[in-house]
Specification:
The complex is a heterodimer of chains A (318) and B (437). With 318 residues, chain A is mostly helical. Chain A is built from 14 helices and two strands; from the N terminus they run ααββαααααααααααα. Helices cover 71% and strands 3% of the residues of chain A. In chain A, a hairpin with a 2-residue loop joins strand 1 and strand 2. By secondary structure, chain B is an alpha/beta fold. Chain B is globular. The termini of chain B are far apart. Classes of the chains: A mainly alpha (318), B alpha/beta (437).
């Protein structure tokens, strides 16, 4: 049995996709002009509140500048970038961040999909189950960080008691690997519902008639999942992965609360925070922020290109 | 019904908001309120001081800073960097003073006030912490220092005469011979740098060259020296010795307190701050403390150990200095208040009620203190503060401290052959902005 994807939403849409330029009628031109006017104020406001700090950071990153020695401010060109990119700590933290991103997103995708299926197929107590699944997402990350820190604590936590192969006095936060496990568990617990929510929207897009046709053709449940449901959800899955990956790349709260970066558990955001907020090094800190921004762009680009995500398609637009 | 209730709620909320706004306005029109940011040590007495030092011209309101020194520093720095006019007075750890002064966040004391804040009565170690670029930028309030605390019976059994200056080598050997331990602070945090700095200064050296330390990024790094090696040798010796406590690598001011009067064993030698005396006095007959008065009598104290035999030790200096915010709307009142909360009377109250020792010699000689503390302990404290060694006075101190910690921790990996060199290279790179911390 071959993979079956639904045709684009309607015959009209399908035609449009084949010859996209032919339909630029007066009406649609007017519509897109109106759309431009409508988004203009928002764009202007966004530029004001986001472009200024970004340009300011770009400017500051060219200086050797410490808040406690304002008179020693000195233009150093791209030296801060050289320092950051040639430093072992920067790459260790980048590796940490990428590791956290890949592992948490992978777990969230699988668990989130299961949750989405449950929410989708539920016949009774729908509201209750959906709400329960979404509760972790409604909890502030700092709070969830503290909650899991207590849970993993060797003095008053429950995790050691529940896990049969671990001693009651096992210290999760004493070493790199176990600290990372604790951080990632908290991160996964907190954001899986978000993943589930995005996937639920994708599940709703899978045409029922197609599933029924597959059933009639004798496809097993497993075949229906892999050959019908998942291919039809591809766009939704990729949007979910993209959003979560970008979020996970900027992980900060859980690390701040649970380990404060001890035992090499620091992420790129945390490194940046320490340079700017703790050490008042505005120059190198701004350079790191710019690098963080660029790497988020790279991650987004890679995911979009690698999985050929079409954001418009995912939103049910033609 | 619902809408009436909602309306009532809105009315109550706006009334509450309105009255609080009015109260805020009232402050600026009538008698000004000076905000004094304090750290959590000795709150009761500080609250009393704020009340006593309020005058007809102004009131002093206490604002509490977080417990950790790093958080205290960042909170104050964020306010001051933004030019906060409501930060009038602040309790500063001495190592923050150069950072803050260099950034122009502290209003210097001038003329008569400067003479009042820093007269001959102020002990030298404390006085050194409040000057920057030949200006008096803060007022010393209380001074902290470390001495070596020990069980007299343990020293006696080991045949160590504690009335004479002792060296770290002697202390470590005495403890290991008798099955005792040596308590220090060697977790990866500020107090570990305190220990390292005192060890290096005790051998006649410095982390940074004192003549260029105020030059910030251009300061000369001198930790890779004979003195640095001597300091590393002491740490290595303790780490390899049976006298090292099991939690050496994560030890802090509190972890070794329990080893002084253990259920089994002869006790310990411990370098620690001045709070130790009041701590054990309050624990007589309780777990973790001496069993009775007699065992408390067995608690001895002596000057901080020497790194090198024959060379006078340089005990650590800590404490609190009072700074006045440069953006304060009432700098004159604030400085007047700073003088009041650091005067002899205030220092005496802090020492007697809270165990926070004075920075003025005259207070050590006062009747209140001689009543509360043994005379020889008071003399030891004041002598230690007077001859103590400051940590590097640099606008980049927090980076210097972190850089030293990163290369000297864990104490079990310290070696006189490599650690001073490695830390010097790293420190130089950090100061030049060529490495990340």
């Amino acid at each position: 049995m071959s993979t079956t994807t639904a045709p684009a939403q309607s015959p009209k849409n399908q035609r449009r996709r084949k010859e996209p330029k032919a339909v630029a009628s007066d009406r649609s031109r007017a519509e897109s002009r109106l759309a431009l006017y409508l988004v203009a104020p928002a764009v202007a406001l966004m530029l004001l509140v986001t472009a200024f700090p970004m340009l300011r950071a770009l400017y500051l990153s060219l200086f050797s500048y410490s808040l406690t020695a304002p008179d020693d401010r000195e233009f150093v060109g791209l030296a801060n970038y050289g320092t950051a990119l040639s430093d072992r700590l920067f790459w260790m933290d980048t590796a940490n961040t990428v590791g956290i991103m890949i592992i948490t997103v992978a777990f969230e995708l699988v668990i989130g999909f299961v949750f989405a299926m449950v929410m989708h197929r539920l016949i009774f107590a729908r509201g209750l189950v959906r709400t329960s699944i979404l509760i972790p997402y409604g909890i502030i990350t700092v709070v969830s960080g503290f909650a899991w820190q207590f849970a993993f604590s060797n003095t008053n936590g429950f995790v050691n008691g529940w896990l049969p192969f671990i001693g009651d006095d096992f210290t999760w936060f004493a070493e790199y690997q176990t600290s990372m496990v604790a951080i990632m568990v908290s991160e996964i617990w907190k954001t899986t519902p978000f993943m589930a929510l995005l996937l639920l929207a994708g599940l709703a897009q899978v045409p029922e008639d197609m599933l029924e046709a597959a059933k009639v053709d004798g496809a097993t449940w497993w075949q229906r999942l892999w050959k019908v449901i998942l291919p039809n959800m591809r766009a939704a899955i990729m949007v979910a992965v993209l959003f979560r990956a970008l979020d996970a790349y900027r992980i900060f709260d859980n690390i701040f609360v649970m380990t404060a970066g001890a035992n090499g558990t620091e992420s790129i955001s945390f490194l940046t925070y320490r340079q700017v907020i703790e050490q008042f090094q505005l120059g190198i800190g701004s350079a790191l922020s710019v690098l963080l921004f660029l790497s988020v762009l790279v991650v987004a680009f890679v995911i979009v290109k690698l999985f050929r995500v079409n954001l418009a398609n995912a939103r049910q637009e033609g | 019904m619902t809408s009436t209730r909602r309306r009532t709620a809105v009315a109550v909320a706006s009334l509450a908001l309105g009255s609080s706004l009015l109260a805020a306005c009232g402050g600026s029109e009538g008698k000004p309120t000076l905000n004094w940011y304090i750290n959590p040590d000795g709150q009761d007495t500080l609250n009393q001081l704020a009340e006593d030092c309020s005058t007809d011209d102004y009131d002093i309101a206490i604002q509490l800073l977080p417990a950790s020194a790093t958080d205290q520093r960042t909170q104050l720095a964020r306010r001051l960097a933004a030019g906060d006019s409501s930060t009038d007075l602040m309790s500063l750890d001495p190592v923050f003073v150069p950072e803050f002064a260099n950034a122009g966040w502290l209003e210097p004391f001038e003329g008569d006030l400067a003479d009042q804040v820093l007269d001959d009565d102020v002990l030298r170690g404390a006085a050194e912490t409040v000057t920057w670029n030949d200006e008096v930028v803060a007022a010393p309030q209380w001074a902290n220092t470390q001495v070596v605390w020990f069980r007299k019976s343990l020293a006696e059994a080991a045949g160590l005469d504690m009335s004479q200056p002792v060296t770290w080598d002697q202390v470590i050997e005495a403890a290991s011979e008798e099955g005792g331990t040596v308590g220090v602070q060697a977790n990866r945090y500020e107090a570990y740098v305190v220990w390292i700095n005192s060890l290096i200064q005790g051998a006649g050296g410095n982390i940074l060259d004192p003549d260029t330390v105020e030059d910030g990024r251009d300061a000369k790094v001198t930790i890779d020296s004979e003195a640095g090696a001597a300091a590393a040798a002491v740490i290595e010796k303790l780490a390899d010795s049976p006298a090292a406590q099991p939690d050496l690598t994560t030890s802090n001011e509190g972890t070794s307190l329990g080893q002084m009067f253990p259920e089994n064993g002869p006790g310990e030698f411990m370098t620690n701050w001045t709070f130790v005396y009041k701590n054990y006095e309050g624990l007589i007959g309780q777990p973790g403390g001496p069993a009775d008065e007699q065992e408390f009598e067995d608690l001895g104290w002596a000057r901080y150990p020497q790194t090198v035999e024959g060379e006078e030790s340089r005990p650590p200096i800590g404490g609190i200095d009072i700074g006045v915010g440069a953006f304060s709307e009432h700098p004159d009142f604030a400085q007047e208040a700073a003088v009041c909360v650091t005067n002899a009377e205030a220092q005496s109250a802090l020492a007697v009620n809270e165990g926070l020792m004075p920075s003025r010699q005259s207070v050590y000689d006062s009747a209140e203190l001689t009543e509360a503390y043994p005379a020889d302990l008071l003399q030891l404290y004041s002598e230690s503060v007077d001859t103590g060694g400051p940590r590097p006075k640099s606008a980049f101190y927090s980076q210097i401290s972190s850089a030293v910690q990163s290369r000297w921790h864990s104490p079990r990996s310290v070696s006189p052959d490599s650690t001073p060199k490695q830390s010097a290279d790293f420190l130089t790179a950090i100061l030049r902005g060529e490495a990340l911390l």
